[in-house]
């Protein structure tokens, strides 16, 4: 399976390379042409300075000048086209991989944190930005030796001077990189810390305001941001120092070329045209090397970003499985499931086995922190067990492609999530489910009447803040989302929390109706709820580090279970 997965994703990356191949060849040719055109100026100088003073031919001067200007104009035109090609290539890369990454990160069974999506996209942005802006200088860098060789051909001494200057430039660039590396690491860490702090504060704005945490948070932010600024100052001071040295070295090279050139003319080894031609070629070589050195970091960052993107694309947790048509009829099976959170010493769930036929209900009970949410997430395939399997029949849920999983499973997370969009879009999972299905789901969740009382009904825009909706109304919209299309398996994490008694009873009735239509229901509760107990055919009590699966004999047993006693027969 792993081999098949890798092969499939390699195709995505290699297909992109294959599709880019023609463009890359064109870019190399453009680069070759425009650099060849750069030789027009030194050739012109050789001809004009050495021949015209002797021949005194104005026509030749005009003709050569027109020719060199045409070559310069052609070179500039090619450069414009080359830059345009690189920009388009960069945009193409981002367009091609952006949706794949977002979709992959959002549907990953590992449920990566949101920061991971941001990181993946910023890696992609880095690759795009390098291709659009930095790649040209690295394409040109291969021409540095050719320009140096040109000045070497005019005179070995001038070639050696140019080569030494470029060599020194490389050493300075390495020193610049090396001397700022640690400061950049510290600055990036501080910057990330400050950013996370602001995002957290923004997310928990209400608590920050109500509990007067703003000055403490500002102080904390200032410490991180201040650290970043100090390091940035240090980095910039060093960078400026090396940049000035590199610029100065360029000036020294130009002066040196003239000085050595003139000396060579004095000793009769060179002409005036030769001096200027060699000086121009050495100047081109140096400038191209300097540009590449300036883009050194962006090349390195783009390489790291590319490697990480490639890894992400090869790390697609969704295996292609053949979905048996019988999956909709198959039981939900938890087969010796164990799970431990990263960094924890204890398993939250250990060797848990339970099976639920279509139409059966399971109620997971336990006090805070006993693992109800973890188990719900294991069942819907957001996280994968450490050992054991969660299956629908023979198929592991976490391995089911996301689009198929979405039709099979409805899920209400513990924290109600409302997306920016209309009520209808929120219930239809931002898709285009038929309106009747959306209404049916809203009716089951007991929110239909409230929605049609809104000014724009199902088209009313709402968002994460969802002002204008009570906590219970938000919850019922999220419940409707879970019920949409009456999926094969519905997992509800604390569905009764925040609901009043009448709504709880109505929800209990809705769950019974869904069960009667063949849905398997898994619900959790921290506090006893009679409608949920009535819905359940099986009970699972978490707590005290042990798990026991029990068959309900009566809802009373569930009540006993709330305090950690009662219910003990394993299915
Ligand atoms: N991402 C995580 N990393 C490490 N430990 C975690 C993580 N999520 C939960 N835990 C730990 O796993 C245990 C079970 O947490 P879980 O949220 O599943 O419990 P719960 O029964 O749903 O709690 P509550 O009713 O308070 O929501 C807790 O001890 C919790 O601290």
Radius of gyration: 34 Å
Overall 3D form: elongated
Distance between the termini: 32 Å
Summed up, the domain count is 2
Instruction: Provide the CATH topology of the largest domain.
Output: Rossmann fold
Name the ligand types. adenosine-5'-triphosphate
CATH architecture grouping of the largest domain: 3-Layer(aba) Sandwich
CATH C-level label of the largest domain: Alpha Beta
Helix proportion range: 55-70%
Summed over residues and divided by their number, the pLDDT gives a mean of 84
Low-confidence stretches: 1-9, 317-322, 552-559, 561-571
- Write down the oligomeric state: single chain
SS elements, strand count: 12
Q: Give the strand order, joined by hyphens, for the main sheet.
A: 6-9-10-3-11-12
Membrane topology: Multi-pass membrane protein
Transmembrane segments: 21-41, 61-81, 129-148, 154-175, 244-264
Keywords: ATP-binding, Membrane, Nucleotide-binding, Transmembrane, Transmembrane helix
Subcellular location: Cell membrane
Q: How does this model look, in words?
A:
There is one protein chain. The protein has 571 residues and is an alpha/beta fold. The two termini are 32 Å apart. It contains 19 helices and twelve strands. The model is unreliable at 1-9, 317-322, 552-559 and 561-571 (pLDDT under 50). The chain folds into two domains: 2-155 and 270-314; 325-561, Rossmann fold. A six-stranded mixed sheet has the order 6-9-10-3-11-12, with helices on both faces. The chain has helices at 2-38, 40-55, 58-107, 114-140, 144-154, 156-203, 205-210, 214-266, 272-294, 296-314, 372-380, 402-408, 423-427, 435-444, 448-452, 471-483, 501-516, 530-535, 555-561, and strands at 332-339, 349-356, 361-365, 387-392, 395-396, 409-412, 421-422, 461-462, 489-492, 520-525, 538-543, 546-551. The longest helix has 53 residues, at 214-266. Helix content is 64%, strand content 10%. The protein is elongated and about 110 Å long. The site of adenosine-5'-triphosphate has 15 residues, from helix 11. It is found in: Cell membrane.
């Amino acid at each position: 399976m792993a081999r098949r997965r890798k092969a499939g994703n390699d195709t995505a990356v290699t297909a992109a390379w294959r599709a880019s191949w023609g463009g890359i060849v064109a870019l190399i040719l453009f680069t070759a042409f425009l650099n060849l055109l750069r030789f027009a100026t030194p050739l012109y100088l050789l001809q004009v300075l050495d021949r015209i003073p002797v021949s005194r031919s104005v026509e030749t001067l005009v003709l050569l000048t027109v020719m060199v200007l045409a070559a310069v104009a052609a070179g500039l035109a090619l450069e414009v086209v080359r830059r345009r090609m690189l920009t388009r290539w960069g945009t193409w890369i981002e367009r091609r991989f952006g949706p794949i990454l977002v979709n992959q990160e959002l549907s990953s069974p590992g449920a990566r944190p949101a920061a991971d999506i941001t990181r993946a996209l910023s890696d992609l942005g880095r690759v795009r930005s390098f291709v659009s802006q930095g790649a040209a200088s690295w394409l040109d860098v291969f021409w540095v030796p050719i320009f140096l060789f040109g000045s070497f051909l005019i005179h070995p001494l001038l070639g050696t001077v140019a080569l030494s200057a470029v060599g020194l430039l490389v050493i300075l660039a390495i020193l610049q990189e090396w001397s700022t590396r640690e400061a950049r690491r510290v600055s990036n860490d501080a910057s990330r810390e400050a950013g996370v702090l602001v995002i957290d504060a923004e997310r928990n704005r209400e608590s920050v305001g109500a509990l007067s945490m703003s000055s403490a948070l500002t102080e904390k932010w200032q410490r991180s941001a201040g650290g970043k600024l100090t390091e940035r100052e240090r980095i910039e001071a060093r960078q400026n120092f090396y940049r000035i040295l590199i610029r100065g070295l360029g000036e020294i090279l130009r002066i040196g070329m003239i000085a050595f050139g003139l000396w060579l003319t004095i000793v009769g080894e060179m002409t005036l045209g030769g001096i200027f031609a060699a000086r121009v070629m050495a100047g081109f070589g140096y400038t191209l090397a300097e540009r590449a050195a300036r883009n050194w970091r962006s090349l390195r960052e783009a390489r790291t970003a590319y490697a990480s993107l490639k890894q992400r694309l090869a790390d697609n947790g969704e295996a292609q499985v053949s979905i048996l048509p019988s999956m909709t009829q198959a039981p939900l099976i938890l087969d010796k499931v164990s799970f431990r959170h990263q960094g924890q010493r204890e398993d939250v769930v250990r060797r848990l086995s339970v099976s639920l036929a279509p139409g059966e209900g399971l109620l997971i009970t336990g006090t805070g922190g006993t693992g109800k949410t973890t188990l719900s997430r294991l069942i819907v395939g957001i996280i994968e067990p450490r050992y054991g399997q969660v299956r629908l029949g023979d198929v592991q849920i976490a391995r089911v492609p996301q689009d198929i999983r979405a039709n099979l499973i409805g899920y209400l997370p513990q924290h109600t999530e409302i997306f920016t969009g209309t009520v209808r879009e929120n219930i239809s999972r931002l898709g285009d489910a038929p309106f009747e299905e959306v209404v049916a789901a809203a009716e089951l969740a007991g929110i239909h009447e409230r929605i049609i009382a809104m000014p724009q009904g199902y088209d009313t825009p709402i968002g994460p803040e969802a002002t204008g909706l009570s906590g219970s109304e938000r919850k019922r919209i999220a419940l409707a989302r879970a019920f949409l299309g009456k999926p094969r398996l519905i997992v509800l994490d604390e569905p009764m929390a925040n609901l009043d008694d009448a709504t709880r009873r109505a929800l209990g009735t809705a769950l019974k109706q869904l069960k009667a239509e063949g849905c398997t229901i898994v619900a959790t509760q921290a506090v006893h709820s009679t409608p949920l107990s009535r819905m359940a055919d099986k009970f699972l009590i978490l707590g005290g580090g042990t798990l026991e699966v029990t068959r309900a004999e009566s809802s009373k047993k569930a009540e006993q279970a709330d305090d950690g006693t009662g219910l003990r027969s394993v299915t």
